[in-house]
Amino acid sequence: MTVTGILLCAFFTTCVCASGVADVVLSCEFIEDSVGLRDNFARSPATLILREVFVGSLESLEALTPFVPPSNSDPRVIMFESKVSSFKIPNIDILLHADCNEREVMCEISRYAPHGLKERSESDHFLVSIDVAGGAFGTLLILRAVPQADDQTSRMNPELGLPLSQTGTMLTEVLFLVFSTVKSLSAPLRGAGLLNCGFRHQDMSPDEEVHIEWRQQHRGRGQIIITMATRLNDPEGGAMVRHSSKDSSMDGAQVVSEGNASVTLNNIQVTDEGAYICSVTIGPYHGQQVVNLQVVQAPSVSFSEEKLILKGNTAQTLRCHCRQYYPLDVQVEWLSQSPTDEEPAIFADQGSLSSHRKHGDGTYSLSSHLVVPPDVVPGTRITCRVSHVALDAPVSVSMLVEHL
Length: 404
Ligand SMILES: *[C@@H]1O[C@H](CO)[C@@H](O)[C@H](O)[C@H]1NC(C)=O
Description:
InterPro entries: Ig-like_dom (IPR007110), Ig-like_dom_sf (IPR036179), Ig-like_fold (IPR013783), Ig_C1-set (IPR003597), Ig_V-set (IPR013106), Immune_Resp_Modulators (IPR050380), Tapasin (IPR008056). The chain is mainly β and 404 residues long.
């Protein structure tokens, strides 16, 4: 599956019915293979109406009204309609709050060919990929068109050759979905991180096999982290988990009972950074989610000098060390505050930086050298302030200037 960079706005969300469900309407693109076009894909606008999305009780939604598809709509407009009330999907209510100004939602629909199924399946299965910008939610759904009763002499969608409901939508049911509620996470070096991935299914034979694979992809290299195989009717016994060398774990019982395929990585190293692909296969259906892991480690900041004593006309050097941080970017600032200053001010001279040193564990160190001129007033406080992505607020160390 190719992931394209097109972002569309989610458009409306409507209706909250009494039971904490809402209809979500997304503007999507329908993508078809098409020989002759430059990128071989034809894109056309499509609408996805997710009926009865479980969102819990959210007060602000009471004012909304149910979505009513336009009657007598143009049959060439592709409108997919799917009821999702039987699935409780964590965080899906994010789609309700997605809006054109704040969060963008990418939604793409294409045809799907279930593995090993023949008979019409190629023409009536669809794959929907939904991603909320910012990584708070992503899902992949496999839909199947619901056959319409013959007597309805229904209109057809000319492009898809499938019958339309009376309101002009294409009724589908969700057979399978894979989702992630944390598509990007940061974890501290040597700490642990949970790579989040879950799945839901419907109408699956209970002895169908579930196969889960987590693979890490980084700088063009891929490796399998953990795989697991079990049957849907096998609440714990038969789960077969195979690990790679990486310290990781998956709860086999949770996979079957909750559809939770999350994996915990322990003792995280810099080399564990990258994209992790959660692949779930049940019978003929297969879907995946990508979760990005970033490793962050805050610098430890200190001066190498214990005191700063100015003598006569000689300048003194102050060295501020930032040790063992990750990733590379770090910002060092020098400030000074004389006894008469109300607040510290940026030092005129910002010192000079050493080059980065890289350690065996992948972390970096750097130091900044400041030459303190002899005319600095005694009692002046000199501060080295360090900013880094792993720090919520900059870290400072400071020292009082003494004179001999
Ligand atoms: C899976 O379980 C863990 C706790 O064990 C939880 O934090 C996580 O949100 C669950 N993920 C899904 C997708 O259900």
